[in-house]
Amino acid sequence: MVLLLMALSSLAVAYWAFGVSGSDDEISLSGRIVSIRETRTGGHLIITLDSTPMQIFLPARVAGKVRGSLSPGDLVQVRGRVSEYMGRSEIEVSRPSDIARL
Question: What does the pLDDT average to over 46-75?
Answer without folding.
Answer: 94
